[in-house]
Q: What sequence folds into this?
């Protein structure tokens, strides 16, 4: 927490109100932050994407931000940035902005490939595409434990998955719908199944974006820019 001392002091000197949300134990948070007037809120966010604590953290962040009417949320770790974006999504109509400063924890040369595969493409896509009307990303619920293996989006506006598929295809980029439910496939069509139509909704409105450990920023940026063109045509 000492890392942010100069940044927070500078913001306070300029007249801004700065509060802190952290999973650090209160005893580990330097006392000078409280002495400066910063409120310190505990949240359950953890670095691993596989922990259900992050679901709780999303709700905690949303309550904190909604209660205090902040103009800006500044994140400093990959999972915290995802939690904050999900938490603040319903509040963006109020004008709140979320920014993320990457300090290279997961994305450094020589880091395990699993770090790049899970964190980087999804984080990049969320940063660039979540602001578009009608796009939402894979939800994190309190009853599941996602591994973020794919970067999936759900479309609820005028742009449909086939629009993005065809737009990318023209540029020699392949992307696919989320898997077709088994009971809709010809071989299994004659058999009984149990369901309420959720899988059909996800299949008709979902899309798997390109994700690979070898993808570069240039490739990710190209994909995002092509998709964004659909919202201005």
A:
């Amino acid at each position: 927490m000492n890392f942010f001392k100069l940044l927070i002091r500078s913001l306070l000197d300029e007249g801004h109100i700065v509060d802190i949300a952290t999973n650090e134990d209160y005893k580990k948070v330097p006392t000078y932050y409280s002495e400066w007037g910063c409120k310190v809120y505990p949240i359950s966010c953890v670095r691993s994407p596989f922990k259900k604590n992050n679901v709780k953290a999303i709700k905690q962040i949303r309550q904190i931000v909604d209660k205090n009417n902040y103009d800006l949320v500044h994140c400093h770790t990959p999972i915290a940035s995802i939690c904050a974006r999900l938490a603040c999504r319903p509040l963006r109509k109020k004008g709140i902005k979320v920014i993320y400063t990457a300090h290279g924890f997961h994305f450094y040369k020589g880091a395990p490939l699993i770090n790049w595969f899970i964190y980087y493409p999804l984080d990049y896509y969320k940063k660039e595409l979540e602001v578009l009307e009608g796009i939402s990303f894979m939800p994190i619920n309190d009853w599941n434990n996602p591994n973020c293996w794919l970067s999936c989006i759900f479309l609820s506006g005028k742009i449909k998955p086939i629009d993005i598929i065809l737009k990318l295809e023209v540029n020699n980029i392949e992307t696919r719908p989320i898997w077709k439910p088994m009971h809709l496939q010809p071989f299994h069509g004659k058999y009984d199944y149990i369901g309420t139509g959720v899988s059909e909704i996800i299949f008709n409105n979902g899309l798997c974006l390109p994700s690979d450990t070898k993808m570069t920023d240039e490739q990710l940026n190209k994909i995002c820019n092509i998709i964004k063109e659909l919202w201005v045509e």
About this structure: Residues 43-229 form a domain with the Aspartate Aminotransferase, domain 1 fold (CATH 3.90.1150.10). Strands lie at 20-22, 40-42, 72-75, 97-100, 135-137, 151-155, 176-177, 206-209.
